[in-house]
């Protein structure tokens, strides 16, 4: 798949989505079935459009199609879409999904001149980041050698690899920007594995949004010079073009290093892992080599939503879960090669995609699959995660993402946050101690909570909350299924022909 051919989807608050996904894939080196997840969209009453294979639907066969229908439901911010079948999004099936708010507080005139105010928010300010393997994901990931080392860091689909001729591989350019204007960079980490430390030489960022949640501005996020972003996470970073007009490195330093990387290689090709932030009317050239130290990083544990929670988060929850991340290391080499035993547990078990989607099991009143936890409507749920692996540092961080909800982060790296207005988001990196998140069961559906390192999800690091099974089917919060949803499983299982003629 051409990694540059990624359409970003742009919408406004109050829009309704109707997105017809037509599966025309034929490349046998890649996964051919698909299912598209709309990352960060809450899907209230539309769980059938969440797009998670074997949780909310059967995959869409080649030459079949399925129309996803859902509403923004008042959400605004930076989201993305990606395949949720196997490790298919690693091969490029992904893109940005932006919901603009015409009444965005940070675009209003009374913010002029203040940090966080922005003038420009358009297609040119969407910045997608990801790691890239030259091999198809099925070949890159054999589980014998752990996660594959990426060959490149891509910014908006472009990036160098070690040994490339820089003249053959142009870098992404953000801009050209106009002196004096402020830009809302919507930065999305669409990686399969890598997290990044993002900085822009000689400039600062004011972070006004995390995972679709608008932020108030304080010392944690005002005029910071760098931030980390884990797979699945998004930030809106406002940057003011207030420096001498020129070309500046937009740096996305990855962990892990790209294949073959060393400080010497970075000297040889300063464009590795970087894009260019360019002012208008300056020479088209690459910035000078060399690193600029960053001293003032964003503190994600102190990000405060612009609108505090309606209900205090300081009280005890109705139900608490403890889901440790456990690596299973006693497989034989053959078992690892065949991937017959998952490599990870989240809680008491591993997520092994069942043949019947969880949502269909609920409809039919059948038993739930393993590592699926029923929870009831109208409850406050706390979930605590802990990485029990040998390396529980940031380098071994697991970014866990919940479908169907934003959550409050009550504990991060073992420390309690401010429960009066804790960080709220939909993806959180687990490292350096306990992470506790809280959500309320107001959105019936089967919602997966999974590591967004796609190799780890494939290796079992996920659990499913079967939220409000009765209310999924009955009452004011029940799920309205899009036409064609019931046909997906019979077609997938081969009982019915696909809707489009095959080649
Ligand atoms: Cu992980």
From TrEMBL:
Needed co-factor(s): Cu cation
Keywords (A to Z) from UniProt: Copper, Disulfide bond, Glycoprotein, Metal-binding, Oxidoreductase, Secreted
Entry EC no(s): 1.10.3.2
Domain annotation Plastocyanin-like: ranges: 7-103, 124-280, 370-468
Catalytic activity from the UniProt record: 4 hydroquinone + O2 = 4 benzosemiquinone + 2 H2O
Stored InterPro entries: Cu-oxidase-like_N, Cu-oxidase_2nd, Cu-oxidase_C, Cu-oxidase_fam, Cu_oxidase_CS, Cu_oxidase_Cu_BS, Cupredoxin
A GO MF label: hydroquinone:oxygen oxidoreductase activity
PANTHER family with a match to the protein in the record: FI03373P-RELATED (PTHR11709:SF394), MULTI-COPPER OXIDASE (PTHR11709)
Protein name as it appears in the record: laccase
Organism listed in the record: Sistotremastrum suecicum HHB10207 ss-3
Species lineage: Eukaryota, Fungi, Dikarya, Basidiomycota, Agaricomycotina
């Amino acid at each position: 798949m051409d990694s540059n051919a990624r359409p970003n989807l742009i919408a406004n608050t109050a829009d309704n989505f109707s997105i017809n996904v037509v599966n025309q894939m034929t490349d046998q080196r890649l996964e051919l079935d698909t299912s598209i997840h709309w990352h960060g969209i809450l899907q209230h009453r539309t769980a059938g459009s969440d797009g998670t294979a074997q949780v909310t639907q059967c995959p869409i066969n080649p030459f079949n199609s399925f129309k996803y229908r859902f509403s923004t439901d008042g959400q605004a911010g930076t989201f993305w879409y990606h395949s949720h079948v196997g490790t298919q999004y690693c091969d490029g099936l992904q893109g940005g999904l932006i919901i603009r708010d015409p009444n965005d507080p940070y675009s209003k005139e009374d913010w002029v001149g203040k940090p966080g105010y922005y003038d420009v928010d358009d297609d040119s300010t969407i910045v997608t980041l990801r790691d890239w393997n030259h091999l198809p994901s099925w070949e890159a990931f054999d589980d014998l050698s752990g996660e594959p080392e990426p060959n490149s860091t891509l910014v908006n689909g472009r990036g160098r690899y070690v040994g490339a001729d820089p003249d053959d591989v142009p870098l992404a350019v953000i801009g050209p920007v106009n002196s004096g204007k402020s830009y809302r960079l919507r930065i999305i980490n669409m990686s399969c594995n890598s997290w990044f430390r993002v900085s822009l030489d000689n400039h600062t960022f004011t972070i006004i949004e995390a995972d679709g949640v608008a932020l108030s501005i304080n010392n944690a996020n005002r005029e910071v010079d760098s931030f980390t972003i884990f797979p699945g996470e998004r930030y809106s970073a406002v940057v003011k073009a207030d420096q001498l007009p020129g070309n500046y490195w937009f740096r996305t330093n990855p962990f892990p290093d790209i294949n073959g990387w060393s400080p010497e290689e970075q000297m040889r090709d300063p464009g590795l892992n970087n894009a260019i932030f360019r002012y208008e009317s300056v020479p088209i050239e690459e910035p000078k080599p060399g690193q600029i130290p960053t001293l003032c990083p964003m503190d994600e544990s102190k990000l405060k939503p612009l609108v505090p929670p309606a209900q205090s988060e300081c009280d005890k929850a109705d139900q608490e879960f403890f889901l440790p991340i456990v690596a299973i290391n006693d497989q034989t080499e053959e078992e690892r090669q065949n991937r017959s035993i998952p490599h990870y547990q989240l809680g008491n078990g591993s997520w092994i995609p069942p043949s019947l989607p969880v949502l269909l099991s609920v409809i039919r009143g059948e038993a739930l699959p393993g590592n699926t936890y029923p929870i009831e409507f109208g409850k406050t749920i706390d979930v605590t995660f802990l990485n029990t692996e040998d390396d529980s540092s940031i380098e071994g961080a697991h970014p866990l993402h919940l479908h169907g909800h934003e959550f409050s982060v009550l504990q991060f790296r073992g420390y309690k946050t401010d429960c009066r207005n804790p960080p709220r988001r939909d993806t959180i990196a687990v490292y350096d101690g306990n992470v506790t998140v809280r959500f309320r069961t107001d959105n019936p559906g089967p919602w997966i909570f999974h590591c967004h390192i796609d190799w780890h999800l494939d290796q079992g690091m996920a659990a499913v909350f079967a939220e409000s099974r009765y209310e999924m089917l009955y009452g004011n919060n029940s799920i309205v299924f899009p036409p064609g949803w019931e046909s997906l499983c019979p077609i997938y299982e081969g009982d019915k022909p696909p809707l489009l003629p095959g080649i």
